[in-house]
Amino acid sequence: AINITQPSFSGTDVFGYTSFLAYSTIPNITFYYEFRLKFQLANHHSALQDNLIFFTGQKGQGLNGDDFLELGLRNGRVVYSYNLGSGTATVISKPLDLTLNVHVIHLGRNLQKGWLKVDDQKNKTVTSPGRLVGLNVFSQFYLGGYREYTPELLPKGPRFKNGFQGCIFDVQVRTSLNKGFKSPGTPEGHPNSGRSVGQCKDSPCSLIKCRNGGKCIESGSTVYCDCLTGWKGAFCTETVSVCEPEHDPPHLCQQGSTCVPLPSGYTCHCPLGTTGTYCEQG
């Protein structure tokens, strides 16, 4: 078990699933909200990808349009979008200064007017199209990725195909100028669920001791021991039997015979109708 205070996200895995944290729906963000957060990129390459930072919202039905709020990275810039049901408003920052270790984002919206400030860049504003002024979202607040298997299930807009790669922390929100900032979640700061989330700068490999020359391999929040030839098991503590398929070289028993290990070597128990050292004769 790792105490997670600064969540680390591993992006999208080979099966198309993203690592994420899901918090309860943020109440009272219909007409006004402000968010503050910090993030640290896993590497410079991850800044150039198409990565989701946070998201809440749902697809529209019938005459009701998509309502959503999302923040992500695209081509080295921060992209902030929202849709109140009558069209998408998008603000795009200048390219990130990749010499900075930690990036700071402050964004908000009051009715149709939204704004975004990234690091020491100037504040940028946008006004959403149409007449609607309220953001009506019922979904949970997703950080770093999303539960859905594919982003096509999300509302239309600048869809972010990948989950975030790196750390996102100190996320805070307020829904009134008269209120203080709070962490999302019920109770405060506690997610409802998540997937493949680790602790920033803390590899689970530091807690695992692979034996007999095995090497700890980290993949997101999953770890396993890569064992040397002849060893197996979670920590490479079990020897590979001469009769097991992963033994190198493999045994030579043929034609459905059963390999039986001996103190030195093995023997083959032949089925009816076969004979020979390896049951190779009819």
TrEMBL record:
Q: Whose protein is this, by species?
A: Urocynchramus pylzowi
SMART domains linked: EGF (SM00181), EGF_CA (SM00179), LamG (SM00282)
Entry GO MF terms: calcium ion binding
Gene (UniProt): Eys_1
Asked if the keyword Disulfide bond belongs to this entry, the reply reads: yes
Highest taxon of the source? Eukaryota
Give the disulfide map: C227-C236, C270-C279
Keyword set includes Transmembrane: no
Residue ranges occupied by any EGF-like domain in the UniProt entry: 201-237, 239-280
Task: Give every Laminin G domain span.
Answer: 10-200
Q: List the protein's name.
A: EYS protein
What cellular component terms from Gene Ontology apply here?
A: basement membrane; membrane
